[in-house]
Amino acid sequence: MKILAINPGATSTKLGLYEDTKEIFTEVIRHKHEELEKFDKPIDQLDYRNGLIEKFLMEKGIKYDDIDAVIGRGGLFHPLESGTYIVNEKMIKDIKEGNLQDEHISNIGALLAKNIADKAGVKAYITDPVCVDEFEDVARITGLPEFHRKSLFHALNIKYVSRKAAKALGKDLKELNLIVAHLGTGISIVAQRKGRVIDTNNPNDEGPFCPQRVGTLPTTQIIKLCYSGKYTEREMIIRAIKKGGMYAHLGTDNVGEVVQKSKSDTHAKLILDAMCYNIAKTIGAQITVLKGDVDAFILTGGIVYNNYCVDRIKERIIFMNKPVFVYPGEDELIAMAESVYNVESGIYPAKDYE
Question: Which chain positions lie within coiled-coil regions (predicted)?
Answer without folding.
Answer: none
